[in-house]
């Protein structure tokens, strides 16, 4: 180029939008159109051939993907900057583009002046983004920034305040002692333990809280980096004493401080008493066994199950009740283990005093004591359980064939529904949005030529109408085919649905994703559509202020719970009326997937909708993704190589 104009390449697979952008750039005195492209492959080639300063690129074009194209352009033409222009504004798409180096992201329907300004800003190596995308994309960045705070950044008052807040929630008594040995902080446990108020403890010394005989030992706790616990007595405000355990440490901060931890051992003794009561009140037989396999204690249910008096059992080997089985070996393995032992269960055979045997479920749990490691055995007679299990297994065999047929039907049904939604979304993206975008650009070019204020106002209103149409069409595309669902993210798709509800109605939401398993595609689509139907009911009828959505893993399936604080209703009365198809659809979708649905509500108390579907092995006909020739992101265009 012989002048100082900014060289621009336009890449868009829709002819109307491409031509409108070309005319818009040609009309600006500081810009020069140097190349056109109709797919990602041509966009990279045009950038290499013409070496523009800016490439304005449609995200969804055939022959490649946008992130790879941006990366290729930045690698081969480092001076070029890429501004993305797309009908889609999902957070994942935007963040993926920014991550590979795009200098801006605009949604189709953005005013022409903003498009021109974004091109000029990109040439100056400045960033641009449509305002409607900024808030949605900034939130995960803010969360990431908060999560990236490092421990060493918490210095000064922030560090000390964080420590004190943490110590305030400690399960034991905590004292913070200053450099002069005076108490500066005492948590609620200490105040309750010693009977002092917060102001009364300030400026006291640790030795004031122990009897005279322990004062020297208490002073030795202060200022050390770490001390082992010491058994002493505490002295309350009223002069009474109680058994306690003291340990000391050092608190990081701007000046040295000591921290003292105090545990009331009288509470421990009460806990021991409660433990004995728990064992005695258990509905199952419980025994306490030492590492040699000798019975140390037994409850009354042990007497009833095995037919022995408990006094007769004390000191006997546990093999008398559970003979010829690898139980003693399991107990001895814990004795010398350096790691914290973990309990487990075993199915063994028990023998009663009359020598009759029975199948037993034995839970083996370690119990650390001052005398060493003991074991708690919980024994349950599972004769009836095994009989019921046999009957259940036979029933399950009969149900397996029916379940496979149901799964196949569900797969075909969901596949057909989602495929139809995908085709509709593709038609809207490839035809309607592109035409309206081109019309909007043409309209804005015409407005710039008008001088009559009344005519300009008419054009402004018409432009706003077109923008509203584009916004609604983009939302319709999301409703028909959420991008997060396509990427296998059920929680992301539901978050988009809830965010739309919050924006349009003001209903706030909380989404909890505790689902660890990855559902098959058809099951994920069914869960999303069922939850969508429930949220439509919240939006239309509940008049709620908040809604809480949970995704939980339960019994090899997914449990979805949707709770709102709306007006509520009488389910029996409403569901019996004609025309209330939403509730029936929720129940029918869950049932056809082999699951269940439960709805609880009453007037004035909000509504809870719960449904569960299994996450079993997908059927033989899984939900497939359309190939590149059918995808709305990759329309099949004839090969072209237009030049400006």
UniProtKB/TrEMBL annotation:
User: Keywords on this record?
Assistant: Cell membrane, Kinase, Membrane, Phosphoprotein, Transferase, Transmembrane, Transmembrane helix, Two-component regulatory system
Domain Response regulatory span(s) in chain numbering: 7-123
The UniProt record lists the PAC domain at 344-394
> Where are the residues of the annotated region Disordered?
614-644
**One Pfam family of this protein, by short name?**
HATPase_c
Specify the PAS domain's residue ranges: 159-229, 271-324
Taxonomically, the superkingdom here is: Bacteria
Q: State the InterPro entries in the record.
A: CheY-like_superfamily, HATPase_C_sf, HATPase_dom, NreC/VraR/RcsB-like_REC, PAS, PAS-assoc_C, PAS-like_dom_sf, PAS_4
Residue ranges with Low complexity bias:
622-634
Kindly list the positions at which 4-aspartylphosphate occurs in this protein. Answer: 58
Q: How does it sit in the membrane?
A: Multi-pass membrane protein
Q: Assign the protein's first listed, main location to one coarse class.
A: membrane
- Give the UniProt subcellular location, in the record's own words: Cell membrane
Q: Which NCBIfam families match?
A: sensory_box
The name under which this protein is listed is: PAS domain S-box protein
Q: Which organism is it from?
A: Streptomyces rugosispiralis
Species lineage, top-down? Bacteria, Bacillati, Actinomycetota, Actinomycetes, Kitasatosporales
């Amino acid at each position: 180029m012989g002048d100082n104009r900014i060289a621009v390449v336009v890449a868009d697979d829709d002819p109307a939008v491409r031509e409108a952008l070309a005319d818009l750039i040609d009309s600006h005195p500081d810009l020069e159109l140097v190349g056109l492209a109709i797919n990602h492959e041509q966009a990279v080639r045009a950038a290499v051939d013409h070496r523009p300063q800016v490439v304005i690129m449609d995200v969804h074009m055939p022959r490649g993907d946008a992130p790879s194209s941006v990366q290729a352009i930045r690698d081969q033409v480092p001076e070029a900057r890429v501004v993305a222009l797309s009908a889609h504004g999902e957070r994942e798409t935007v963040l993926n583009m920014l991550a590979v180096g795009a200098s801006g992201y605009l949604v189709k329907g953005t005013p022409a002046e903003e498009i021109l300004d974004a091109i000029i800003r990109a040439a100056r190596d400045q960033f641009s983004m449509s305002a409607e995308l900024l808030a949605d994309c900034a939130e995960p960045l803010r969360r990431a920034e908060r999560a990236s705070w490092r421990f060493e950044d918490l210095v000064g008052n922030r560090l000390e305040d964080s420590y004190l807040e943490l110590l305030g929630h400690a399960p034991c008594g905590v004292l913070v002692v200053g450099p002069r040995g005076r108490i500066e902080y005492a948590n609620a446990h200490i105040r309750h333990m010693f009977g002092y108020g917060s102001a009364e403890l300030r400026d006291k010394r640790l030795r004031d809280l122990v009897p005279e005989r322990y004062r020297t030992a208490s002073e030795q706790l202060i200022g050390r980096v770490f001390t082992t616990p010491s058994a002493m007595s505490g002295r309350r405000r009223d002069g009474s004493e109680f058994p306690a355990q003291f340990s000391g440490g050092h608190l990081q901060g701007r000046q040295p401080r000591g921290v003292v931890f105090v545990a009331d051992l009288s509470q421990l003794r009460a806990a021991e008493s409660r433990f004995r009561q728990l064992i005695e009140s258990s509905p199952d037989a419980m025994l306490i066994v030492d590492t040699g396999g000798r019975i140390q204690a037994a409850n009354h249910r042990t007497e009833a199950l095995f037919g022995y008096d408990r006094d007769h059992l004390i000191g006997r080997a546990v093999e008398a009740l559970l003979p010829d089985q690898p139980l003693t070996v399991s107990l001895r393995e814990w004795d010398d283990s350096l790691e914290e032992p973990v309990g487990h269960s075993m199915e063994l055979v028990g023998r009663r005093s009359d020598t009759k045997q029975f199948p037993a479920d034995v839970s083996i749990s370690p119990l650390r004591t001052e005398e060493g490691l003991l074991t708690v055995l919980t024994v349950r007679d599972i004769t009836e359980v095994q009989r019921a299990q046999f009957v259940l297994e036979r029933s399950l065999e009969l149900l397996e064939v029916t379940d496979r047929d149901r799964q196949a039907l569900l797969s075909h049904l969901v596949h057909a529904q989602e495929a139809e939604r995908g085709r509709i979304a593709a038609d809207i993206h490839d035809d309607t949005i592109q035409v309206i975008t081109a019309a909007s650009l043409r309209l804005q070019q015409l407005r710039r030529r008008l001088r009559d204020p009344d005519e300009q106002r008419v054009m402004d209103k018409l432009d706003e109408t077109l923008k509203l149409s584009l916004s609604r069409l983009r939302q319709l595309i999301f409703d028909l085919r959420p991008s997060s669902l396509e990427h296998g993210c059920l929680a992301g798709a539901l978050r988009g649905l809830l965010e739309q509800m919050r924006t349009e109605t003001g209903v706030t939401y909380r989404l909890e994703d505790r689902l660890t398993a990855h559902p098959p595609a058809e099951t994920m689509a069914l869960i999303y559509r069922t939850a969508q139907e429930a949220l439509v009911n919240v939006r239309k009828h509940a008049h709620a202020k908040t809604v809480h959505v949970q995704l939980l893993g339960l019994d090899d399936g997914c449990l979805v719970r949707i709770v709102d604080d709306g007006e509520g209703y009488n389910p029996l009365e409403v569901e019996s009326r004609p025309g209330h198809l939403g509730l029936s659809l929720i129940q029918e979708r869950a049932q056809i997937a082999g699951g269940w649905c439960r709805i609880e509500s009453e007037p004035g108390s909000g509504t809870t909708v719960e449904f569960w579907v299994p996450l079993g092995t997908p059927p033989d006909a899984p939900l497939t993704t359309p190939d590149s020739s059918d995808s709305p992101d990759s329309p099949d265009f004839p090969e072209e190589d237009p030049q400006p």
